[in-house]
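Side project, low priority. Logging it here so it doesn't get lost.
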Amino acid sequence: MIRRLALVGALVLSLAGCGARVAGDGDRGGAGSGGGHYPVTITNCGQEKTFDRAPRRVVTNDVGITEIMFALGLADHMAGYVMPDDKGDLDGVPWKDGYRRTTWLSKERITKELVLDARADLVFAGWNYGFSEETGLTPAALDRLGIDSYLLTESCRNGRNGARGVMSPLDALYTDLRTLGKIFDVEERAEKLIGGFEEQLAEAAARAPRGKDRPRVFLYDDGRDKPLTSGRYAGPHDIITRAGGDHIMKDLEDSWTTVGWETVVERDPEVIVINDYGDTTAEQKRSFLKSYPPLAGVSAIRNDRIFVLQYVDLVESPRNPAAVATLASYLGRTGS
């Protein structure tokens, strides 16, 4: 049973399904109290929720979110995951056993019908990572079905016209690991993961360029008329910065967003990082960048300094620290 603390002024919903009710409306123990660990109260994207037990049938959306669950050893708490089949090789990843043990529910988008068919008691997704007013799949819509939700912290909205991001990307990853660790009673496992990531980042920092040697770096996701890129609250910002680069879009207070090509040309990146996923291959993206006339004078294009990382490296995921190490090695070799 899940009980949630109401936000100030929020409408109190009477939920069936997984038995959600407003915290403070009765006893705080109950069945499944988990030997003293439960109930636990967490804050997720500004909203407090209280769990009387660990969710048992979680549905995740997208690869980074799914691998957060796998990294925490929570495959047994999952009903399955949803993601396209354009996210690279899943057999060689550290959490391949999680993929083998968990059902791939759909390679299309996540829907309310899919969640109901899976008998989910919690959906772990994010704004623009499955949750969207346009599709009708939102935490509020799930509430009305008696299904709880957990929002990816990278996707938290910050109140600026739908912009996303409330903290630096690695802090978002650590926040989700610690919060989910509390929800599922695996806090020690979460801290061990974070400790390992911090060691990995420290080793990368020793190889990374510093000071005047830090090259200007631009993240290119896709887009011809306008490039989709990363602001300061998406994964690439911390990945580029921790790897010894100067992220040229660090002033954008958003996560994933579009800019004009004129801004890219003006800021003259010395390295371009390509986000590899989707129907357009990394090589096709590279060919476009090298042949697009407005970019001809940009340092990264003139010197052919284009580096490729996978989608899951760049969205919030447990692969972020390894991506820092990989990029740090590249930037350390190329210089500025």
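Brief comment: The CA atoms of residues 8 and 47 lie 10 Å apart.
Revisit when time allows.
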